[in-house]
Fold these 4 entries.
Entry 1:
Amino acid sequence: MRTADWRATVSRALGILVLLAGVLLGAKLCIASTPADHSVPSIFDAHSTPAASIRHLSHFVLGVTGLIFLVVASLLIYAVVKFRSRRAETEREPAQVYGSTQIELAWTVIPMLIVAVLFAATARVIHAIQDAPKPPTAIEVTVVGHQFWWEFRYPGLGIVTANELHIPVSDPAHPTPTFLKLLSSDTDHSFWIPQLAGKTDLIPNHPNETWLDPHDTGLFLGQCAQYCGTQHAKMLLRVYVDSQEDFNIWVRGQLQAANQDEKQATGRRVFETTACVNCHAVGGTNGTGRFGPDLTHLMSRRTIAAGAAENTPEKLRLWIQNPDAIKPGSLMPAMKLSDAELDALVRYLETLQ
Amino acid sequence: MSSDAIPIQAAEAAGRPWVETLHEWVTTVDHKRLGILYILYALFFLVVAGLEATIIRIQLMRPHNDFVSPQVFNRMFTMHGTTMIFFVIIPVMFGFANYLVPLMIGARDMAFPRLNAFSFWLTAFGGLLLYFSFVGGNGLYGAGNAPDVGWWAYAPLTSRAFSPGHSSDYWTVALLVSGFGSIGTAINIIATIISMRCPGMTLGRMPLFAWLNLIMAGMVILAISPLTAAQVMLAVDRYMGGHFFDTQAGGSATLWMHFFWIFGHPEVYVLVVPAFAFLSEIIPVFSRKPIFGYPVMVGATACIGFLSLSVWAHHMFTIGMNSYANGFFAITTFAVGIPTGIKIFNWLGTMWGGRIQFKTPMLFCIGFLFQFLIAGLTGIMLGTAPFNWQLSGSYFVVAHFHYVIVGGIMFALFGAFYYWYPKITGRMFNETLGKLHFWLFLIGFHLTFDVMHIPGLLGMPRRIYTYEPGRGWETLNLLVTIGAFVQGIAILVFVANLVVSYFKGAKAGNDPWDAWTLEWSVSSPPPAYNFASVPTVASRRPLWDLKHPEDPDSRYE
């Protein structure tokens, strides 16, 4: 019996150690992402009011639950060690206790109080985030989830783009938050940038809303967080938080007409005379499809295929020729173009700044 | 009370052709045989679902891995979840309830033996139908494929536009069929407990095991019905042009979510209440004390059952409900913690002042208490609606519910396997292998599921077949995969122990644990009629009264 209870003690200790190690590792990873590098999308590395309020609340909840854990786990370990059977054969049965109303009442009432406190804290944050008023200076963006990419429309600015959302940084003194209207064209999706806000689903026939007010510039990463089909995994999301000046420059770039350079007429003809135009739009051409991303300013984006590949001529060529090589199961068909057509098309797309 | 066994059929068993034995098992209406069938059926699917989990973990071992295609990965997590919930845990719990409830309440069989057999075969057929999709998912011509819509199958992903072929239909019909089986067995458990108790066994003297299974059966009827309704609606959509969930034609995707989770959350408690039932039998015996606060344990469980009907939308905090709805479902979720806490404290109270024997079943129960505590606390975090907006749909949730289902329910199940193995087979299991199983599984479990919380906090969503490097997820996912393999080895030790002990184990005798409930008064395995003469009881622990005539429980109750 001695070895057995020694082992049980070690078991508990091990469990706690593993847990602590996990928490420490997690904390280390969270801290590792410095402000300049937001590559680890940790929910504790908050750069926006909703994310910061959630982090604040989460610290409180972690504190309360951590305390409960310590108390109950200590009682459990104490009971296991203290009341272990030492010599089972010679021992008599212990005192037969059937219960105690007072004690049971105590461990009913105390949790009730904890629940009340937790609820108060939760309700406050729900209200602060969900019922936040929209200031007149807010930027409005309509996000449309598609199988497996993101469409961003800025109704006030007349911009349509995809997969890479540009928003201005919001100075607390002169807040310019971004309010997002969330729609879906097919299945359920979920918009989630952990460092900026919690997630909100995009559900067809059920418009939703969320908002961000980033306090720092930089690139923030996220991805679709509601299973939406085969390529749910590569429905990546990039949010560029620009300074006010950079944002204005980006807006001006997006408002320019599409490149009409006659040197690329061959490539443009390939685009206009094949199935490309059924799904993709380029300003000033006969391509007005909305099933796939708008390509008018394709070259202003760093990635293609919803973040699945870098936006380089080689990857672009591969993507048109054989999308399955980059994103198997995506709805982009292999275009079956000749090499010459493919080269001309890629050269044309490369001019869509 | 009698401990005499009538040796019925035992002598003629040897030397019969196997076809006859098989025929006997297929046509049986005996609650013990059906219980064993349920358990073996669940063990088979446990291995299948375990293999699916292994494929998932190998694929996620490193970023941009190409062990399987996205299509195969999506089928694997759909089938893993569906199989574990509907074809492993529900059947295994029904198996134990079937086997033990009549024995514990001094009855000779379930109330409706033929309904019992019918329900089992419905459930069994449901499981086969689900797996037939691998062959027939596209219809019998081309290659088949299994469902890939996730185990909660959100609309409109299940509509014909997004799920062509028949794979989703197999999912729907399999759950529909096995759901009828579950309702049949639930009705049977309720009828048995209400009307078949032996003389002297008032409701207040029933073993907690019977009480908790009564509550579980009631919840099955309440929870499975909306699921069945939703499946019928989905079939109408897919085959008769209905528009319940057809968002293109004014249908509602959130309607499915409500239907699914009003089933889905009580379902969690349908699975965990029988686990509570195991603990409530095993902990007292190995602490050598009666359960602490019996009436409160019954009340707390009934309270959990009731509250669990009011929390379903905490699975839907991110769908854009208004702040009042979010607040309501947050507080009901916290409130479930109160009766659950009472139960944990009462098990602690049972151990307190006892003489705890660390036999394998008890080790698993202690593991349960520790892990279920953590699972409950991460549940509080998820119930905090704003915190949930970050955690929901991430690997944190996956870690949380595996903490409940593996760290809680599976640990309790293993405890139950070892505790009642001598009763069911008549042989003792190998204690050393049992302890090896416990320790290996404990290490593997914590390596997998403690670590799994962290990628969720670092923004890793669930149900992705691959992930980008450089987000801090690589090492963590590798550790999780290693832990999964350790658990796999532990399961092999468990199965080996079950098989080897069946042939080589020492004879168990009627009552190897010096326990107190009626099933230990009959031979191991029990005779076909259970009790030669129907026992009469005077307290909650009839065998304690028998063993301690100088100090019987009946004096205090």
Note: The longest helix of chain B spans residues 70-104.
Entry 2:
Amino acid sequence: MKREELQRLADEDLMTLVDRKDPDAFEVFYDRHGGAAFSLAHRIVGDRSLAEDVTQEAFLSMWRSKARFDPARGSVRSWSLGIVRNRAIDALRRASGNAPKLDLDDDLALETQRSPELTDAEAIRRDTARHVRGALGELPREQSQVIELAYFGGFSHSEIANMLGEPLGTVKGRMRLGLEKVRASLAEALSVSDASEVLP
Amino acid sequence: MSMHEERRDDIAAYAIGGLDEARVEDLLAHLDECKDCRDYLSWLQPAVDVLPASVEQLTPPAELRERLMETVRDDVRSSQQKARRRPEERWRSWRGLVLRPATGFAAAGAVVIGVVAGYALHDSGNAEPALSATVVRNGGEAQLAVDNMPQPDEGDVYKVWVERAGAMEPSKSFVPASDGSYETSIPGPLGNATEVAITEEADPSVTQPSLPAVVSAAL
């Protein structure tokens, strides 16, 4: 298949070809998600060289089918970034001398619901990114802090509670309130009004 | 705080990878049983999925892409070379098969219907322990036993095939023990079977052999 044709494929169709070990399809897959992956890895490990290693390791894991994409468990982007996060947190822990916390079984990286994921969704992604950055910025500091420590720092809620000197329940409550606000803001950004956007 | 509220706190912590491992198993068990909580996790998940978008977006170095694709294309080349090499060099390495009595099976009263054995010869000419594969009919089934079977390539398995009316039908897949031995039954009926063969396969679910047999025995 020509590169132009590959570029027009939706992520899920591209992954079918990647599973068949099509290097051109994998190249398009990397071009589509490598930037977000590298950015996430860099945010977590805080070092360009280590972020490169993490990104390469994560994508090779996806290529070599040690991690398999399952459409029932979420979008390609969420799946691949989940793997990158897992690897980055693990690298962070190794670099800091702590025992790895995360299981390197990449298939366990995410358990997500299916979400829209089409190649032409990049514009939506950019709008969403702006909106999410804004939503996170508007969160009370104590809520964004616990979310960042857990998601980007790989800390568990009890570690965060110890770190901040706060009760466990308070930390989890802040995580929840913060995420619910981001979720509500996301629904607003996507201007979706179906029932799934309402807090169940 | 109600139990339900506490669960939601746990779910939020779990969704961002921040729930203590000691609580994860309990939460997953609860999620299996509670649709409300599953719905809540599903509802919350997009908020987690977009967190990576909140970080400063960087352009990865071009060298990263080059290194990655070089490795990927090396993988493809290596795989292709391996596939080309197998029918020639690897299969040729099992030439010189000789018959060997399967005394153990015969003593047990079963009927030996196929025995193959051979010596793997490396380029250096050094002989490795003899590979042997023995098929013994046992009523409507057969017993297959192999010894000194080399480990398949990483990720590969050996697959057993039964030939009937000129068609190869897939049977069991296996990886031999570290000492190269393996025993299994081959489900029958084998009345009209003419051959049992073993191939090395990358995909255990294949329905036709993709490579020549490593060993085979006429029935």
Note: Chain A touches chain B through 67 residues (CB under 8 Å).
Entry 3:
Amino acid sequence: MRFKSGFARAVALGAAAVVVLLALDGIAHVLMAQNPFGGPPPAAEPQIGGIVGWILAKQSEFYREISTTIRAAKSDGSAVWTLLAISFAYGIFHAAGPGHGKAVISSYLVANQETARRGIVLSFASALMQALVAVVIVAIFAWLLNATASTMCNAEKVIEIASYALIAAFGARLVWTKGGGFIRALQVERPAPVLAAVAHHDHGHDHEHHHDHHHDEDHVHDEHCGHSHGPVPSELAGPGGWRRGLGAIFAVGLRPCSGAILVLVFALAQGLFWAGIAATFVMGLGTAITVATIAVIAVSAKDVARRLSSASEGSGTLIMRGIEFGAAGLVLLFGAGLLFGYIAAERVTCF
Amino acid sequence: MKIAPRRLLGLLLAGFLVAGGGVAKAHPHVWITAISELLYAPDGSITGVRHAWTFDDMFSTYALQGIETKQKGVYSREELSSLAQTNVESLHEFAFFTFAKADGKKEKFLEPVDYYLEYKDTALTLHFTLPLKAPVKPKQLVLEVFDPEFFIDFKLADKDPIKLVGAPAACQMKFERPNDGAAGAQKIGEQNFLSGGANANYGAMFANKITVDCP
């Protein structure tokens, strides 16, 4: 337990660092953009590294090194270690780009009363599933069937659509349940005034035993646990909640990342499929760290919101149910947006 | 309650970061080294563009996956013909990453002709000709080659990247490479991140711009 909470704290710390860096970066840019002489802003922005730009440049660099390193590993086995190190770094940077379920996982965590620890577990599980799917696709299509890239790509497209549809369906279900909670909160004339906000508590096993039955609708808060639970608490932390967590992992993790597929096929062609597989999983590990960081930020933000809203008398529950409902809506929007192409995900390489 | 505004700020910032995560941009997965030719008719009008695009090592290998050959590692033009077909058909969706403006007016291209793939030194090169829907004879033609989503990084070849084939002698050609990749990425990334801008023209920063002036 001690180790786990230490780990959670470390991730939270990392998350805080990212926020601070981004804030500083933004401030630096605002300052740089102002002309001290009061004239129009300078035409060319000085090349002070924007962090986002730096991330983009870095991942590009790492990605190009992956193919070089795989080629090198053909003759020099020790290059595999370099490959793993680069893949790990690439994963960390790459997850900052589109896809990888950051938005979906974060919204899901906010919509449900999830702990940071569970956010981390969900992030790792979905990232590892992504890696696994990429390996399975390449193993079946390229290695076993020796199918062409375009066949493989069509399979990827089908999987992609399935993943987006699942996210949308998952979001719709969240909206349905959270909408109920929101409406109930609207109907409660005087909601429970005090919502004791305990950010970190054990959402573990002993908890579940109390909750595998439904509470009555008027049971807005859950006193014997000492923290605020929604009107539908048993669905969240109870066994059903874990099952739904699996749903999130599956929906998000189903779509592999195009980069991993390219790396795997390339490694296979060089006769180093195993190295490609190892690189893919290490990449997934890196991705998971970034996604987990963002997930923890989302959960912490909600905890702050909960503390703030509990200070405002009466409307606290309503605000929290509103945030949850909004987050549930976001999951649905992400799913629908991805499905109908309004949100650009990473392109599937089909030429 | 005194610290509430600061906390609220933190909350907004965190929310921003989460939302921004979805906005942050992809990086290129495919690199293309291009050589482009502008084709002129005897009367001095432009009829189309001929491209030769060489893919990077990794993508070339990926594209060749599962293609049967008589001799291992050697791919003839015939053996690659169906792949070339797939290539040009898929490129349609992306407007062939080729954008032409004649005196400021956007020009359309027809489907590619004379396309084939060539395999040399572990790299695939796609050759194809894009005929203009209607030949044009503008004072100024601007041709840009880039991927708006920057999934593909286009770089025109170091040596003789552009040729004017049969152009009137008086025509002057100017060629601008994209700004230094990293610096460009930083600027645009930052802008998009802060404004939450759409994906739409992200890659324009990385465009290769060819301008031909004919008096």
Note: Residues 176 and 328 of chain A are 9 Å apart (CA to CA).
Entry 4:
Amino acid sequence: MSLRGKSYIMGAFEHPTRKATDKSVAQLHAECAIGALADAGLTKDDIDGYFCAGDAPGLGPLSMVDYMNLKVRHVDSTDVGGSSYQVAVGHATEAIAAGRCNVALITLAGRPRSEGMATGTAPRAGNPAQPDVQFEYPYAPTVVNMYAMCAARHMYEYGTTSEQLAWIKVAASHHAQHNPNAMLRDVVTVQDVVNSPMVSTPLHRLDCCVISDGGGALIVTSPEIAKTLKRPLVKVIGVGEAPKGQMGGMVDLTYSGARFSGKAAFDMAGVKPSDMKFAAIYDSFTITVLMQLEDLGFCEKGQGGKFVSDGNLISGVGKLPFNTDGGGLCNNHPSNRGGITKIIEAVRQLRGEAHPAVQVKNCDLAIAHGTGGSLGSRHGSSTVILERE
Amino acid sequence: MADRIAGFSETNPETQAFWDAAKEGKFLIKKCTACGKSHWYPRAICPFCMSEKTEWVQASGRGKIYSYSHMARANPPFTIAYVTLAEGPTMMTNIVDTDAAKLKIGADVKLVFKPSEKEYPVPMFTAA
């Protein structure tokens, strides 16, 4: 059974906060749920499925279901880091298609900024039972140095340059200038990026995403319920997920799981990368975007540097408008997990509700792709393809 | 500037022999006698064929840099790397006692054990 068209995203909400010193994490999750329900025109009692990931406080979904006092008949708390929310859309679609729920709520929230978390640069010991930890923690792997090793290898294999990577930040900043909630609204140049302080060779400070508090939520419904609502119909036509790791020591940092999750999603949807009018691509770092664009098939492997250059990702300028909210690089990376905000901006674009300065004309097909965990060691990869009906 | 003292997690029954050997200056990897392949990080069960017939073998300690990243702003600065061992597998490690500006992907490196915060030294690499 294909999942194509078995669900619709009818509610989408991005929390406007970027620093929430006065709120709890559970409260932020619930505020996002309120926002998405209001957007969809549904109420709490309509929810019969709940989906969350590791940012939800408590054991799996249990504490948040209890906090919001939901009465649900299906739950899923698959945690693959920032890619969890694309996975949740896929799993919600499966559950809806199987009759396990009709109205699925997905929430994400967190406050790493308020908590002063050194998200990218601090090594974390992790759970000693995790089998890789004793062979990696001694070397101080951090978020940034792991992605940096992917960038270094990409440069070595394909001649990719820091200037090419910088174009990705430049494009994001062009979009963020129109987003009043974005953390970084100043337009930057390639020179600004390559002249910013080196954090972990070859990645500069401006190759990195922001650290922000906040969250987001989605309402995914059955086709029957979607058609009773007053919102534009955003149909889920393709989903895919694929973890990738070190392959027993056959480490290959030149590609990501997007090679597999993207193919699965495109095959299900019956469309191809060149059909996409808009691309929401996980942007923890500039290199994340470049590798995923290649792996999803927007260009040949190794040609990502050329593809992103000269404003090709800027809405109204280039061929593939991406992350028109400013993305994680400039707008928002709530709870250090950028998957859900990718889906939210794709929904805005398909509804025609993006900022007029960045709205893509006749936007009827979009991709929202997530990466979670560490691209340099083991990561989740998940792809959602959406169609405006 | 003083070297960074490596953190250390915990050993377990599956890996104790590796760390006991490290204390004696021996660098072991796991090889599967069923499929003949070496792997990293060491497991009791082969990640290629799922055979339980894996054995510890002493590695040469020679390898090449697969990728690396230097964090000059860390205190103290350090270089993380993946090194591809002569035996085949690629492992996460640090490059030490080497000028970071002179590092190159593909360069030859050799094993050196460095102390950790616990009783076990950890395998790192330096320019060969």
Note: Residues 255 and 291 of chain A are 6 Å apart (CA to CA).
